[in-house]
Amino acid sequence: MIEFGRFYAQIAQSPLAHWLEVLPGQLKVWRDEQAHGLLPSWERVLDKLPDQSGAAIELSDSVTINAHPRLIDGEKRRVENLLRSYHPWRKGPYRVFDFEIDTEWRSDWKWERLAEHISPLANRHVLDVGCGNGYHMWRMLGAGAKFVVGIDPSSLFLAQFEAIRHLAGAPQNIHLLPLGIEQLPALTAFNTVFSMGVLYHRRSPIDHIFQLKEQLVEGGELVLETLVVEGDEQTTLTPPERYAKMNNVWFLPSVAALKLWLEKCGFEQVRCVDVSVTSTEEQRSTEWMTNESLAQFLNPDDPSQTVEGHPAPKRAVMIARKPYTATPP
């Protein structure tokens, strides 16, 4: 059974200690009322994974786990089959015991686009909002982060993360909690906050930006990645129904509008460091994610448009700083 007792103990003597006033109650509600009905079966899969307390993990250029003690081929195939039961795998890829989890997204491409632009993560407390199964959290850890927390309400993503963490030897400085950003109090405890692929799913993007700001220490850095459209400061696309077959897309701003939103919310040093059109090589169906993917979301006669006639997905990475209220030391 997935439990969070070690996380509670770790944050009890940290700047996150005040989170304990609400967090245990929230996670009890999640377990009792909000967890997916298949969670018990996903937890049973976790119990079948081999002990890998001595595993070696490579995080600088990838997320690669090497078994220790070494596993025979039959044991490796058993682990692979167990992990396949967590279909669909969205974010990755992961390389586990000589086989690759070929996920829908080449999330490593996104990391490569932003890694050289962000402030060094060494010794930082980092929050990843809407983290999925935690792929980018591992890359943050590999970049030197001291403590990484991800939040995502999906029970499946939590199970996938816990499986990877178990096979990686269960490091205790990386944790995923099944929560949404709206459930977090103003923690004011993280040096860097990431929100990637979340803003366009929020009914109130301005409220989301303020919620992200509340998690940062003064002088902390926000890394925000989201869908954008071409246009000036007043340009925002609001899809009347679906966007790329998604029914929960609310606002796609231009880069100029997004910069204005961040500045209006009190961020400074706001800059766009990357704009990239999403390709069908970066997001696609695989053996580990056999559902429809980007190729089916685009107009087959004009891939510059979605099937609904909107501009095809283009993503921007914004970086901004939470100002100091007084002169920094």
From TrEMBL:
Keywords: Transferase, tRNA processing. InterPro entries: CmoB (IPR010017), Mo5U34_MeTrfas-like (IPR027555), SAM-dependent_MTases_sf (IPR029063). Signal peptide: none annotated. Its EC number is 2.5.1.-. GO terms for molecular function: transferase activity. Residues 300-329 are annotated as: Disordered. It catalyses: carboxy-S-adenosyl-L-methionine + 5-hydroxyuridine(34) in tRNA = 5-carboxymethoxyuridine(34) in tRNA + S-adenosyl-L-homocysteine + H(+). Carboxy-S-adenosyl-L-methionine binds at K91, W105, K110, G130, D152, P153, S154, I181, E182, M196, Y200, R315. The keyword tRNA processing applies. Pfam families: Methyltransf_9 (PF08003). Belongs to the class I-like SAM-binding methyltransferase superfamily. CmoB family. Catalyzes carboxymethyl transfer from carboxy-S-adenosyl-L-methionine (Cx-SAM) to 5-hydroxyuridine (ho5U) to form 5-carboxymethoxyuridine (cmo5U) at position 34 in tRNAs. Homotetramer. PANTHER family: METHYLTRANSFERASE (PTHR43464), TRNA U34 CARBOXYMETHYLTRANSFERASE (PTHR43464:SF95). This is tRNA U34 carboxymethyltransferase. The gene is cmoB.
